[in-house]
Amino acid sequence: MPSEEDSPATRSAATDAGPPRGTGGPDTVSSSGLLSRRSTGFGFDDEASRPEPDTLLGVELGDVRIERFLAQGGMGRVYQARQRHPDRAVAVKVMRPGNRSPAALQRFRREAEVLGRLRHPGIAQIFTAGCHRQAGEETPYFVMEYVPGAETLGSFCERQHLPARRRLELLLAACEALAHGHSQGIVHRDLKPGNILVDADGRPKVIDFGIARLVDDAPADTGSCTETGQFVGTRQYMSPEQCGAGRIDARTDVYALGVILHEVLTGRLPYDVAGKSLTETARIVQQEPPAKLLITDRVLGAGADAIATRCLAKRPDGRYASAAELAAD
Questions:
Q1: Which of 134, 197, 288, 326 is most buried, most CB within 10 Å of its CB?
Q2: Any idea what the CATH number is for the domain that residue 93 is in?
Q3: Active-site hit among 6, 46, 190, 249
Q4: Which residues contact 118 (CB under 8 A, 6 or more apart)?
């Protein structure tokens, strides 16, 4: 059973892990209680967590110069930067000061390794990784694709007043990106609307592989707690097996996609877990049936509900086997 601590997961952009407001508009509350307000080119700019003073502003990491702070999460900070060769805007993710435990370093390096395996237009691409030495301390970082004009999936759907069919098209594109990850043996483990950005051209990109797992990593096949008992993931989108000690595989991501499907089409989560403890949330997810997916589009309604119901099956063998199978339905 998970502890009463929220996720220590590294965030590529400020998270929107809190209770939904509509389908997750521009103002959302993270699991740490911080308010994410302004859309940036890589998620949301969390003013409350802006590091002051910031010794990395203006620093050059190879041919990359850091220009401005964008966001931070439990273990990482994200900056906008400029690369000289080729000349382009990039995002730089660095480890937060004071959080350099062996486990934290392993998770940070794991994210870079995971992104290095992925080559898909629906996934933010990594360009390079390294270590910056400053004041006698080494700071790991990696340079990745910057997504200009991006906003989270929920915010984009609401601002554009998208019909159900268009929302499903966006989710289908996200499924195809995730299917690529699954084909490379990678399970995201923290899918939610805040980790699916929509760029200025209306194309989704899956981000934040900070707690992703490689399925060929034998010791990492089960559970969602760290060695210290901390809970990883975002409670509203976690599967029954993530809430316990079940095996984690592609079907874990399929479950989260079912929650997202429900949320972007109805503005509500399939379970009422607002204000609930992690222990009570786990009980609800593992034991209670999800709400029916009811939408006004009669053509899409029955089919969408059947898809969501299969995604949200308590047992993994009752779900789609992968995001590719889900996308094909």
A1: 197
A2: 3.30.200.20
A3: 190
A4: 125, 126, 180, 181, 184, 186, 209
